Each structure stands twice: as C-alpha cells, then as structure tokens.
Amino acid sequence: MKKMNKIEATHGKFLRWIIQSLLLLSMLLTVPISHAEQSVHDSGWSIEQLMQSLADIRTGHASFVEKKSIAMLDRPVESSGELFYSAPDRLEKRTLKPKAESMLLDKDTLTIEQRGKKRALSLQSYPELAAFIDSIRGTLAGDRKALERTYKLSMEGDEQSWNLVLLPAEDKMKKVVAKISIAGSGNALRTIEIKQADGDSSLMTITPLPAP
Fold first, then answer.
1. How far apart are CA 12 and CA 33, in angstroms?
2. 194: domain CATH number?
3. Half-sphere CA count of 73, side-chain side, radius 13 A
4. pLDDT at 187
C-alpha cells in the first residue's frame, strides 16, 4: 500500500509539472514572441486587436530569463535560455543555465530532454488537458471565444504597453493555476507571470532576437 501511494504521489507530482510546462508553452503560443514593427496609436489596445494580430506571426526567436518562486525554497530559482516558435503549434524552450535541457511542443507531442535522455509524451494520454490545448489552438486562429472557454479575460493599457489577465473559468484549471498575467507591446510578448493554485509562481521575461 505504501509503495502504491508513493507511485501515485510521484505520478501526481509529474503530472502537475507537465501541466505547468504545457501551460507556459501554450501561453507563449497564444501570444507569439515577436519583434514585428507596429505603429502605436493613442486609442486603447483591445483584446480583439490582439487576437487579430496573432495570425500575422509565423515564426519567433527570443531569449528568456525565468524566475520560479517555490514555497519550500528561500529564494527564487532562476534559469535562462532561448525560445523558438513556428506557427501554428510548434514551440521549443531550450534552457541553457543553470543546466542544459529542452522542451519541444509539436502538435500533440511534448518531448523533454534532460540529463542526456529524451522522453516523448502524447497529450492524448492526459485527457484533462484536451479542452485546454484545444482552446489555445483556437486562439492561434484569432478565435477569442475558444480562449474564453477556459479563461475569463481582461485587458488594461494601450498598444504600446498592455497587460492581459487570464483567470481560469473551469474547475479543473483552477486546481492548477490561480492567475496568468501577460504583458507586452503591440504583438510582442514581454513577460508572463503565472501564479499557481498551490502558491508557487513563475515570472518569465522575454527579449526578442533576430531569426536564427
């Protein structure tokens, strides 16, 4: 019985890590990493305008610095690396520091490489993520309603400096995340802050780079 409980606990911990990883990668897919030139207007920058701009982004390359605040640790854990995006649903996160590892989300497969070993996971093995992933993919097509099936949206600011807040609308997502704040300028993403339901949080700062 103890062995079974340990296995279930390990599986639960791994599943939460997968969900968090997919959440971050999917948010990056939702608001692509872009350095496209855009004019700045005095009028407010609406969610509709942001959604419309998504279809214009085909590829992206950026560096990132991520700080994770974990309840059991005294100080944030910092990592850095690069992000690569290719429309409509391929994103790679390459962590370079403090240790090399990578995560590749390509269609319905998440490939993780750590310590020289690769592990491929089919999203179909996690049915609780199906609706979430579908909503993200709908957003890539500029479908605001698809995103609103999973989150309640609100936006502040203008085209030059905006902040999009996502609050989970479904109970299954509320068990994972409490709040997501995405800040950017035009169609360029700058930061993603994720506050998890368990109190942990992460802040990723993104800097666009020239295409490789």
1. 31
2. 2.50.20.10
3. 10
4. 75
pLDDT of residue 34: 58
pLDDT of residue 54 exceeding 80, the answer is no
Q: Which helix (H) or strand (E) element contains residue 148? A: helix 144-148
State the total domains in the chain. 1
Distance of CA 201 to the CA centre of its chain: 13
Domain carrying residue 71: 2-208
DSSP letters spanning 121-183: EEGGG-GGGHHHHHHHHHHHTT-HHHHHTTEEEEEEEBSSSEEEEEEE-SHHHHTTEEEEEEE
d(CA 191, CA 136): 18
What is the rounded CA–CA span in Å between residue 203 and residue 183? Answer: 11
Residue 5 is encoded by which pair of tokens? Answer: 């409980």
